[in-house]
Amino acid sequence: MTSRRKTCADMAEVRASIDAIDRELVAILADRLHFIAEAARIKPSRDQVRDDERVEDVLAKVRAAAAEEGIDPELIAGVFRELVERSIAHEFALFDQRNR
Length: 100
Known about the structure:
This is chorismate mutase. It is built from 3 helices and no strands. By secondary structure, the chain is an all-alpha fold. The longest helix is centred in the N-terminal third of the chain and has 32 residues, at 11-42. It starts with 10 loop residues before the first helix and ends with a helix.
């Protein structure tokens, strides 16, 4: 991914840049949730929905990626921990819905 980091002339430019990134993030999160739904469809049992080893693997990878980008790894890990926990809850809901 190409960085769009730039010096902005004013707050309008800052806000427009953030808004554009937020739209992209929503699209990326929609893709991520698609694959969460795929996991809920594929996993044969509810006890496979939560995988703590996978959670820690994801967090380790995002910490490393954050460090490469020069941003606070723990800040990013916190954001992703929330994302992962909400994704797991969503996957449980989808799994339960599928198996009613």
